[in-house]
Amino acid sequence: MTEPTNADGDTSGPLPPDRGPARSRRRAFAAVLGDLRAVDGALYAAVAATSTPTLDRALRRLSHAADHAKVSLAIAAALALCGPRARRASVAGLGAVAVASAATNLLGKRLVRRARPDREAARVTVDRYVPMPTSASFPSGHTASAVAFATAVGVVLPAAAVPLGALASAVAYSRVHTGVHYPGDVAAGAVVGIAGAAAALAAVPEAARVASRGGA
Known about the structure:
Elements lengths: L19 H30 L3 H13 L4 H10 L4 H29 L28 H16 L4 H17 L5 H21 L1 H10 L2
Helix pairs in contact: 2-6, 3-4, 4-5, 4-7, 4-8, 5-6, 5-7, 6-7
């Protein structure tokens, strides 16, 4: 019986592993990724093409106000004045923002390095413009921070869950509306935010209790 040969006809060694299935999986993954990018781009273009003059100014201001988590920081400061449970919520929220921001800026953006959308090519109206960040687009840091804060505070202070969740959703959408993020960036930012909140809630419960007792 003829012995199996390698690519050079040599029968002295084992055959190389069959790489066919691995190549097929890579091709399938690349195809799915390409389709997701196409959907992402189509959604971005649809938002850009939809005329919403009444919303443009409000969403532009909200997007700008969420820079460096300023909205979350202001709410955390207000919560710190409202009793022990609210102070625990404030500490948890700030911890979640810190974790989510670190994960976004030190890991996500450096690993993926997705380019920002070309909002001029997409014809995003100038009335929506906020400064285009110089950092990578994926994931959305504004979304990650807003969702992290809303999730952590909402767990500790359930009465705040709905309004803060609505605010975080508005911040997330504003980043697409103003043309600085694709919807996929925002979705990924939301996932990072939820994970950041979970990590903070697990890591800082004792710090939150100490903070609440300090002002009791």
